[in-house]
Amino acid sequence: MEKTIVPMASTYKPKSSPKKRRQWLTGYLMILPNFLGFFIFMLAPIIATVGLGFTEWDLVNNPQWIGLANYKNLFGDRIFWLSFRKTIWFTLLNVPIQSFLALLIAVLLNRKLKALNLFRTLFIIPWICMSVAVGLTWTWLFNTQFGYINHVLTSLGMERIGWLTSDKLALYAVIFVNVWQYLGWHIILLLAGLQIVPQELYEAATVDGANNWMKFWKITIPMISPIFFYDLVVNMIMTLQIFDLPFAMTNGGPGNATRVFNLYLYQKGFSFLQMGEACSMGVILFGLIMVATFFVFKFLGSRVNYEM
Amino acid sequence: MENKVTYKRLLLYLMIIGILFLYLFPLLWQLSTSLKESDEVFSGYNLIPKKVTWSNYKIAWSQFNVKKYLVNTIFVSGLIMVGTIICCSMAGYAFGQLKFPGRDFLFFLYLGTMMVPGAVTLIPSYYIILRLNMANSFAGLVLPFFFGSAFGTFLLRQFYMTLPKDLYEAATIDGAGSFQIWLKVMFPLSKPAVATLGVMTLVQHWNSLLWPLVITQSPSLKVLAVGLSDFRLFRNIQWNSLMAAVMIAILPMLIILFFAQKFFVKGIQFSGVNR
Question: Looking at the predicted complex, does its ipTM rise above 0.95?
């Protein structure tokens, strides 16, 4: 993320006096609790996962070094590839649809509206609800016999559809719910980007006779491209890690129709107790995120307009 | 001219309200189902129940064990929030206002891990909790998150960096040490940033599923997300009672959202605008 510029506090100059030393000590002591948690539950586990990925380990006996055997097993595992593909497909559909829909609604909301705060609040409601809860709500809406969605279909003279029981449709149903749940989050983020676009630009364009459509393409899009790009990247990283919704709605089923990567990883680790393989899956997921981020930066990053 | 403007405005409002109604319809339907009697659940499709009943909430509260889950969730996410606020405030202040060797290196280490997926740390963290004899306990639910997060420290650091340097200097002249300056002067000033971190942490851990799922087996320790997820594979679900359980699970966060919406919006914007 070379474009992310973090403003740094002025750089430290070595010059020691008792007063400075005391500040050092206070500094270290004040980060200590936070750093301890960070070290024990973040840094050390990251390193441990990489190592454990090369072992066979059932949590009870000591890990046995088996080299690359876990990776070999996974690459020969049909369900591993299936979960890999499902996750990529999930992300490829979710990210563009969600981010573009969010952009459209953000543009609609980007006016001087008296009720803007209320609208914003209402739009983030689904995000604030736990995925398990809204997953169950949507399971009810998608219910084949009594669900509201099939009620709408039948009253339009169509057949009932087994949204979550069909192995062709279940993944799309879960993607749909995911788009719905986090849409508001992206709207808020993009709306913040739109609100910092200087109004004078639009006024000048109006004087030059530009219509709304031209203003949207020539001013809005270039001006918010950095934040929109950021939104796409964050969205992608989050979606590749999807777990809660498929777990709550279908538990990977029917068959393996919604068995996304993290669901399979969880199953490997905590149902089959193949901790070594689960760790190598974690490493692969991280690798996937890095590679995907790299490609997005390479192919989309150059089109982003960072001049304001 | 005047008329045309108000007409357009009205149209805009109608459009937004229409979109919002469609967008929130699933939640309205959830509320509606939770208030219906069983025979109406399977027969009518009206949004307003013909006869409103609160008995589903009673069933969810006691028979579905939601009361226990709710208490556990409040306890766990509340503790994590308090721990995070204290630890991240101290660390954010140290990173943003104090000088000590290795400070910038440590901070970049923090930033570097923010892209690492949770799946990577899951299994070793679980093993650590297991070895600490904290599996299947409240301590195991809380401990890994109690000391705060890299995100929280980042957020607070950015806040403390915006405070003027003179403030620190002035307090030093008055003879206060660095820790005292934080406690007496800077921490009280950081209320908005702390509130943002607080609500974001609370929601994250209120809703969190994977870690509690892995750590707890006993029904008496389950949080709402885990307890409710048990229902997903049931046959013959009592949908009205389940929707009541779901309402209870999300209602506390909804109330907090309506009182603290400003801080949620700030929390979402933080990551995006802070570039």
Answer: no
